[in-house]
Specification:
Keywords: NADP. This protein is of the alpha/beta class and 343 residues long. 28% of the residues lie in helices and 26% in strands. Bound molecules: zinc ion (ZN).
């Protein structure tokens, strides 16, 4: 089968396009004929190598998968060849205390398809049948592939973890990123007032179109701006993924008793915190990663079956141009997802 992969970690030049062996659906698995897969920043980090990440080479990346069921393995019921699906990228054991409690992302065996295991930048993948999710016939594979990872991440961070509610206010950093553009729409849907920050005026204009009430240039003193715009109150929720570069301003922007929820550390993972401000202002600091299966099902239903949101595709590349697609994602010029069309 045709695949985009790498045999060693490194820069763009380690990416190859060629033929690899086609997988077979084992017991309780389905074989998916992939039609589109989306890239995430995670794909760049995995290509470059992450501490503690040991991969079987060659590695096929791509955590966001849309396609059709091509075969069903032994013991699989309820799925048929030709059904259109996306793939839940969660990998979990199903037996530990966290899995039993429905918190799969806390499982010791937790992983992500495309990161810890073979992903979707290929014509076929065999996945557990419990991971496939049916999508409507009129939903394009390109747009469907743009959904799973960023929408599940934004949903858990804002709704599951930070418990954003109607009438509250939220600051979303890095408007333009896949999670942030999903988060703007989810926050509006939740009935919150949305502040969006970005360094790019073009991205701020797009954020407004998506429903942001207020936009801020993140290269200015936006911590102070938020403070002024909210009458020295701050916002109820700050959605953080930038890390070191924005941390101080993020903490400054959160209201007393509010919540800073972080799901990334793009500019660096080590930050300072003044504990006196934490206890005196009594705000919450919480982490969030991906989403549990219940949250995944909720947000996928809202996106695919209730059509509440508009998943954004910025650009589609053919699989043979995977290097160019990685380079484009690295340039951070996109607004919405970079999607790979599978031949
Ligand atoms: Zn488990």
């Amino acid at each position: 089968m045709k695949a985009g992969f790498f045999r060693q970690h490194g820069g763009l030049d380690v990416l190859e396009y060629g033929d690899l062996a086609e997988p077979v659906a084992g017991p309780d698995e389905v074989l998916v004929r992939i039609r589109a897969a989306a890239l995430n920043h995670l794909d760049l980090f995995v290509r470059e190598g992450l501490p503690g990440l040991k991969l079987n080479m060659p590695h096929i990346g791509g955590c966001d998968i849309a396609g059709e069921i091509a075969a069903v393995g032994e013991g699989v019921t309820g799925w048929n060849e030709g059904q259109r699906v996306i793939v839940n990228p969660n990998i979990w054991c199903g037996q530990c205390e966290f899995c039993i409690a429905g918190e799969e992302t806390l499982c010791d065996s937790y992983g992500v398809l495309g990161e810890h295991q073979t992903g979707g930048l290929a014509q076929y993948i065999a996945v557990p049948a419990r991971n496939v999710y049916a999508i409507p016939a009129d939903y394009s594979f390109e747009q469907a592939a743009a959904v799973p990872l960023v929408w599940m991440t934004a949903w858990r961070a804002l709704i599951g973890q930070a418990q954003l509610r109607a009438g509250q206010s939220v600051l979303i950093l890095g408007a333009g990123g896949g999670v942030a553009s999903a988060a703007i729409q989810i926050a509006r849907y939740a009935g919150a007032t949305v502040y969006a920050a970005s360094r790019s005026p073009e991205k701020l204009a797009r954020a407004k179109e998506l429903g942001a009430d207020y936009v801020l240039r993140s290269d200015g003193d936006w911590g102070r701006e938020i403070w002024q715009q909210t009458n020295k109150r701050g916002v109820d929720v700050v959605l953080e993924n930038v890390g070191a570069a924005t941390w101080e301003s993020s903490l400054r922007s959160v209201a007393k008793g509010g919540t800073v929820v972080t799901y990334g550390a793009t500019t660096g993972p080590i930050v300072n915190i003044d504990i006196r401000k934490l206890f005196w202002r009594q705000f919450n600091l919480i982490g969030s990663t991906m989403a549990n299966n219940r949250e995944f099902n909720t947000i996928m239903r809202l996106v695919f079956w209730e059509r509440r949101f508009e998943p954004l595709v910025d650009k589609v590349f053919p699989l043979s141009e995977l290097q160019a697609a990685h380079a484009y994602l690295e340039s951070a010029e996109q607004f919405g997802k970079v999607v790979i069309a599978i031949p």
